[in-house]
Amino acid sequence: MKIFKKSVPMYHLKQIPSEAKIKKIVRRILFGTHLYCPRCKSRSVYRSESRYRCRKCRRPFSLTSNTWLSNMKLPWQQFYTLLWCWLNHMPITQSIKITGLSEVSIRKWFEEFRLNTPDPDWLSSLKDTIQMDEAFFRNKAVIAAKDTIAKKVILRVIPKKYVEKQNVSQFIARHVEPGSKLFTDGASYYRGIQKFWPVTHKKDIHSKWEFGLTSEIEGVFGNLRTFIRRKYHHVTCSKLENVVAEFEANFNHPEIFKNPHEYLRNSLFLVPTC
Q1: 217-255 confidence digits (pLDDT tens)
Q2: Are 146 and 126 in contact (CB under 8 A)?
């Protein structure tokens, strides 16, 4: 799966919409064709300087009120450009040059985008032919499985720097459907796995140079490491789970991350108020 951009074609940056067009996009996503008050739903609203006001409940509001963008202070074009950088996996250093923002601001906003990553179809289990493996990131482990037919993945962070049979057993019970073919390496915690869960288990012995059964899942971990290194340079243990979730969402639903419009269309909603 290719998810990285090595350079920034200038025509992409020239296509950043005007502030008026971005606000129109956001307005259509949140309100449809008719603007209304987020609190009382009345359509009797009018513009008051840079905000709106409801004639019925007299409450002022903006386009981003009652959304996860409510505290945004960035100009709309700068925000849109920053979101474009995040969606195109631009490294932090390159995003600084493109947006003019500080590293602290960019990391803060990249985290905000991660936390609001849309999840239209939470993938809870895999079936058919599944490859499974584990990898280690500083003081935490990650267990992952890939459906080699549907090309979907599930990754879960283990809050310790080693994997036990219990962790593997719980992952399989939660995320591998009965009757599947399960391919792993020869690690001891996979031994006898078919005795407690109805799968057909086959394994590679890496010391014998057997890699065919787990090549795709090992490639997933290679992509994950490159994803972290290129985009964030490094990730603290406390944020590893969120970054892994971002990677999983990118892998399983690339259509959502195609451009800022699609991301906002799937992630931006009005939060009901009392």
Answers
A1: 999 999 999 999 988 887 888 889 999 999 999 999 999
A2: yes
Contact 244, 138 (CB under 8 A): no
Each domain of the chain, given as residue ranges in start order, spans 22-72, 74-121+260-268, 129-252
Residues in the chain: 274
Task: Compute the chain's Rg from CA coordinates.
Answer: 23
Q: How far apart are the first and last CA of the chain?
A: 44
Fill in the DSSP letter of residue 93.
Answer: H
At the top level of CATH, which class does the domain 22-72 belong to? Answer: mainly beta
User: pLDDT per residue over 4-51, tens digit each?
Assistant: 444 454 445 667 899 999 999 999 999 998 999 888 889 999 888 778
d(CA 99, CA 77): 9
Q: Which residue has the higher pLDDT, 123 or 43?
A: 43
